[in-house]
């Protein structure tokens, strides 16, 4: 898997910018991970729960997107390997259960 890259041209597309705004509005511009623990933290990032590099079929699905603050987003990814951390895998599993999507074998 390629390393995480803020310079990915995907994130500069008009379609992504629009969808990002829709998701931030849906989530009230609040970090949904912090919200789970009763904290109110502004969100500045929209995270692909199922990484788009591995699951391109889910990259535009609103159920696969969640608003996070920078710190929580960084906690979802191992920035050296580009893979999900334990926190990222836990979110993926919760999302899969909630929306009836199979958990990929590599994350079981």
Provide structural commentary.
With 108 residues, this protein is mainly alpha-helical. The protein has one domain (9-100). 36% of the residues lie in helices and 7% in strands. It has four helices and two strands. Strands 1-2 form a two-stranded antiparallel ribbon. The longest helix is centred in the last third of the chain and has 14 residues, at 86-99. The chain is globular, with a radius of gyration of 13 Å.
Brief characterization of the structure:
This protein is mostly helical. About 35% of the residues lie in helices and about 5% in strands.
Our count of domains comes out at 1
Overall pLDDT metric: 92
For the largest sheet, list the strands in their spatial order. 1-2
Return the structural class: mainly alpha
Strand content: 5-15%
Overall 3D form: globular
Number of helices: 4
Number of strands: 2
State the distance separating the first and last CA atoms.
18 Å
Q: What is the string of helix and strand elements?
A: HHEEHH
If you compute it from the alpha carbons, what radius of gyration comes out, rounded to the nearest whole angstrom? 13 Å
| Low-confidence runs | none
Binned, the helix content reads 25-40%
**The biggest beta sheet, please?**
2 strands, antiparallel
